[in-house]
Amino acid sequence: MEHELCIFSCRASSQFAERAVKELATVFEKHKKLVKNSAIKMGSITTKTFRDGELYQRLDENVRGGDVFVFQSLQSPGEQSVNENLMELLLLNGVIRLSSAFRITNVIAYHAYARQDRKTKGREGISAKQVAKLLQASGADRILTMDLHSGQIQGFYDIPVDNLTALPVLGQHAAAHHKRNGLVVVSPDAGGVERAKRFADMLGATLAIINKHRPQQGEAEIIGLVGDVAGKDVIILDDIVDSGGTVQEAVAALRKSGAKEISIYCSHPLFSEPAPERLTKLGVAVIGTDTILHNDKFLGQHKWFTQLSVAHIFAEAIFNIHTNRSVSQLLDELHQKS
Predict the structure, then answer these.
(1) Are residues 119 and 219 in the same domain?
(2) Residues 177 and 303 in one domain
(3) Which of 7, 18, 185, 190 lies 20 to 30 angstroms, CA to CA, from 102?
(4) Does the model's pTM come out above 0.70?
(5) What is the spatial distance between Cα 77 and Cα 101, in angstroms, rounded to a whole number?
(6) 133 is catalytic
């Protein structure tokens, strides 16, 4: 029995989901000799918020026996907070499960709480694991995400987790806009060294590492720099730019060490306050993806930011999952490009 492809989006990811659906139609067209190409469109959901903040949700179409993909990036800032976005996804999973879907895949372009993946002090929680439990308990059968802050978060789930990467998209832009001779890729902390090494190899660049210490959550203190950046162009590669504190300290340290032109590349440009002000003052180019989708007004006001789309990568992954093709092969192809 062939399960119908059904695609829905919670409110925080509607624009990104629409981009992915367009890309998915292209993917189906490319493979039309191998698979039956049915009409691909976004499903409709009625969502209302009661005066006390409770949510009401109802699917406007039948999903019985369907292979359902639900888009929701757990982002903030935006119209809803991270926790509101998470709650909306959890409740929708329950609605879809009660509607007798065959399978539910949560497409979480940005996986919130991933930075809380271990205990660093006594009496702390491991929130990433709690979120994984919640998503599974709500009815999710599979998670599709991108550039998890910690790869080991996949182990918090007892369901398949496909962790895509934005490095091919970021690398293509970097290769077109930077001279490779003398280029240095910098990891802003020890946890990002593997990612930065792959990016450096892709660009034929050298690698440098910033030794960072966090006195407390949300703050960063630069201890030292390993590598030579004097007189060289530098790319700082990070998975997340949140408040901008880490990159602000990193840029200061690199300029003190004699770096020339500095650019920042990231998968998830959260830009929580006061990041826009900090990054504007830094005077460096920032390149990120649309896993956190910033509107035209933001892009117009902040010319230092370039937004690249990774919707086509998610479209390829959705196609492979729906048609029971290898996602591991797609991941291998992405890593080979990165």
Answers:
(1) no
(2) yes
(3) 18
(4) yes
(5) 32
(6) no
Extract the tokens encoding 219.
């703050």
- The H or E element containing residue 206 is strand 206-213
* Angle, alpha carbons 230-235-236 (nearest 5°): 105
Q: Residues of 141-157 as b/e, b for ≥16 C-beta within 10 angstroms? A: bbbbbbbbbbeebbebb
- Walk across the sheet containing 285-289 and list its strands: 221-226, 206-213, 184-187, 234-241, 262-269, 285-289, 305-308
Series of mean pLDDT values for 10-residue runs along the chain (338 residues): 89 94 92 70 94 95 96 81 95 98 98 90 91 98 96 94 96 93 91 93 95 60 82 96 92 94 97 95 96 91 97 96 90 73
**Residue 260 CA: distances (Å) to CA of 171, 183, 203, 226, 251:** 20, 10, 18, 17, 11
173 and 161 in a single domain? The answer is no
Write the Ramachandran bin of 219: left for phi over 0, alpha for psi from -120 to 50, otherwise beta: beta
The residues, any chain, with a CB within 8 Å of residue 233's CB and separated by 6 or more, are 178, 179, 182, 183, 184, 259, 260, 261, 262, 263
Q: Which of 22, 36, 212, 232 is labelled catalytic?
A: 212
